Amino acid sequence: MEGREPTLDEIFSPRGVAIVGVSPRDEWSFPTKVVHSLKEAGFTAIYPVNPKYTEVFGLRCYPSLRAIPGIVDHVVVGIPAESILALLDDCATKGVKSVNIFTAGFRESGYKERAELESAMLSKARAGGFRIIGPNCVGLFVPKTHLVNWTRLPLEPGPIGFLSQSGGNALDLPYHGVPRGLHFSKVVSYGNALDVDESELLQYFSQDPETEIIAAYIEGVKDGRRFLGALKEASFRKPVVIYKGGTTEAGRRAAYGHTASLTSSVAVFDALCRQLKTIQVDDIEEMIDVLVALRFARPLPQGTGVAILGVGGGPSVLASDEMEKGGLHLPPLSPEVQGELRQVLPLAGAILSNPVDATTLQSPEAISATLRVLGKVPDIHMFIYHLGFHPVSCWGDSLVPLETFIQPAVDAFTQAQQATGKPILLALRPPPDLDGMKLFFAAQKAFVGAGFPVFHSLQQVARAMARVVAWYQARHP
Amino acid sequence: MEGREPTLDEIFSPRGVAIVGVSPRDEWSFPTKVVHSLKEAGFTAIYPVNPKYTEVFGLRCYPSLRAIPGIVDHVVVGIPAESILALLDDCATKGVKSVNIFTAGFRESGYKERAELESAMLSKARAGGFRIIGPNCVGLFVPKTHLVNWTRLPLEPGPIGFLSQSGGNALDLPYHGVPRGLHFSKVVSYGNALDVDESELLQYFSQDPETEIIAAYIEGVKDGRRFLGALKEASFRKPVVIYKGGTTEAGRRAAYGHTASLTSSVAVFDALCRQLKTIQVDDIEEMIDVLVALRFARPLPQGTGVAILGVGGGPSVLASDEMEKGGLHLPPLSPEVQGELRQVLPLAGAILSNPVDATTLQSPEAISATLRVLGKVPDIHMFIYHLGFHPVSCWGDSLVPLETFIQPAVDAFTQAQQATGKPILLALRPPPDLDGMKLFFAAQKAFVGAGFPVFHSLQQVARAMARVVAWYQARHP
């Protein structure tokens, strides 16, 4: 009707949003939650739609889309599948630009008539000049324009663009990523990919000036050739971190049931990622770790040499094994360097051979002194500092007086990073109790606030850095 | 001198304990912490030793071991290495049974004279008729006799015996295990294994009536032939879960610097574990998971068939992949079974093909109904239920009203487990914020309290159950 399809940028900055299927009697329903979320974010033009009510949650409620007096660019839909075609007619009449269909039970249900319904929906969108996001998805999180379908996250935009076929993962990445310092330009949960799909979103993010790093959770690919082109361009322009679900028979079955995705061969996908220099990860946790490394390692390590320092012989031994397994390298320290370390660290209970492990490495002075010595070793390209929060409850009180530790440690790391020109990565291991978690979150907040990459175990750092260094070396051979 | 060496059982139940090197001016020192810990545990005959004080922490303090009027069976030592030989003479005079040497900086320091000092210490112990635990270790945690070197853990004994070459791991396993329901007969941190070593401890635990499951963290093996015999007998009698540190070159270097361990070839050790039907794990986290499965899966699953049910398509897809990678199997559900599920679960947003995923699987009624249907499928040997705690902070309030969810869910699972005779395993995914953690810990406590095995991610359940089922099938071919 309009002649030209709306762009994704137009979709991400709507002037008015209608939410269809809001009910004040069901606080848990998705449309209700979207209303709350937009309100909390200070989005101004919110139009709940439900013929049964004239007011919901302090907002005027409209009997239909057509009854809304203002401009509606974006519609969020959570009504039964059977009623959607009629609603899409209203969308065309109202001249909306995009419809985010939360409703599930379409192609992925396995029913033929539901797959046909999807096709009819797409025809309506084409004819009506609007785009569909979904169905079977949680839609958009665009902090800059306050178009946020989920809440309790800061409205601070950041450089990461995330496209996720799964709604759960679209929530998990920001919820677990924000405390680690990750912020987002746009998060798009696109579900069954009836219209807006993985290739279009990849293309968009690779051009988007607000996006510096692209993250993608993909179960299936709609058009292999288009996807190949989009991934190639995106990976050429920006770091792309991709997590592919459905790599085994059972996973493929789950992916089909989840978003009607026909997943491709694992071997083909792996080879593709290697060739295009795309960073592949195995789960959302690893995706967060890799994003944290890409975002906060300053600079990105120029090689595989790692020095590990911290407290705890057991974790040090494990970390050494994990680093080497992941393809990183712990250069042994020369007798001269070990001699220098001996002057700043105690002999008893210390390992001075890389990993460097000493109980005094809980003091910022010892950390600084150790990093001064290690900073001169040429084949070390990054430092990993680790600290377990379990001792908080071990021996009657904290081994680490965190009040006096955190700020001096932040200063020590900041100084050492500047002096050595090599990145410092932190592994803070969370404790199993609530009191310990309070200290843990406080420490994490301080280190993240100072711009450091924080991980939750030495295995996680090892896994993530092995990926990032391999990617970096492939890009800068 | 005494003619007969004290047994480990005698060592684990001393009548009096002396702590040498206590200082009221250093709250962080190990001897000080041991005094606090024994006091808190209600151990009665505690004798701090330090010639500078006559009273510490409300206890009479003695100038020397010899000055103590009462019986001293066990001595905890945290004084400099140089002073230890003289102290061991006092131990012989006083007729003690065991000396736990926390002090480090011996053989593992790489200095020849420190290795010789170790040998001299061993000669003194042999001549004096007492045993040495350590050096370079945190010693004993025996809740039954209140001989506990670290505190803030319940004094409830349990069926797990843990020998750990690393002090950090000796703390990590109970601190992270207790909230998961794991309790211990004895935890022994044995450090450099100068006297009491891995083979003796394995032999002890395999005979100990209070130990049903043996866990071991080992960096190096002192005597291959003895160890082989001990591991063979232990693995024949009881489930043995072993985590071997130092499997790469860097790890081996760290292990030597940590506990002076010369680690053996990975391939040999792997083959040994397979042959002896020992369960090998890759880190302490996995050790906890496997112990939780062995302890609480009721009964142990009789095969590799898994049904996954829960909320979240993304995690379901991932879990399917993880299960299959680990050697478990997700049988597809027949159209008849899927038809039955359709009557108890909504069509929209649900995956009914195994994994079974539906938002209503947050209601105990839906859980019960689903388990009733799945309970009849013969090739399913265990059920894994998963629930993410991230939604707590997602959409303005909790998706799961935990107050009303936990107890009904416990009841639903208990009933289903009894009715089906197949184990139910729970994956509760922790949230990234303190408010969420409160709910998470409350839920974990309730499920653990009801005797369920609780894990923290679907990957963890998959990894642990793959190990446990492989072990079970090897034992019951």
Strand order of the largest sheet of chain A: 9-8-11-10-12-13-14
Secondary structure tally, helices of chain A: 16
What is the helical fraction of chain A, as a range of percent?
40-55%
Name the pair of protein chains with the most residues at their interface, and give those residue counts.
A-B, 93 and 94 residues
Biggest beta sheet summary of chain A:
7 strands, mixed
Mean pLDDT across all amino acids of chain A: 90
Low-confidence stretches of chain A: 391-399
Quaternary structure of the protein: homodimer
Whole-Å distance between the termini of chain A? 51 Å
Structural class of chain A comes to alpha/beta
Give an account of the 3D structure.
Two copies of one chain form a homodimer. Chain A has 477 residues and is an alpha/beta fold. Chain A has helices at residues 8-12, 30-40, 84-94, 112-128, 167-177, 198-207, 224-237, 249-259, 266-276, 284-296, 313-325, 335-344, 364-374, 402-420, 434-449, 458-475; strands at residues 17-20, 46-49, 55-56, 59-60, 74-77, 98-101, 131-133, 139-142, 147-148, 160-164, 184-189, 213-218, 240-244, 279-281, 306-310, 351-352, 356-357, 382-388, 424-429, 454-455. The first copy, chain A, has 16 helices and 20 strands. In chain A, α15 (434-449) links the parallel β19 and β20. The longest helix of chain A has 19 residues, at 402-420. The radius of gyration of chain A is 25 Å and the shape is elongated. The N and C termini of chain A lie far apart (51 Å). The interface between A and B is large, with 93 and 94 residues.
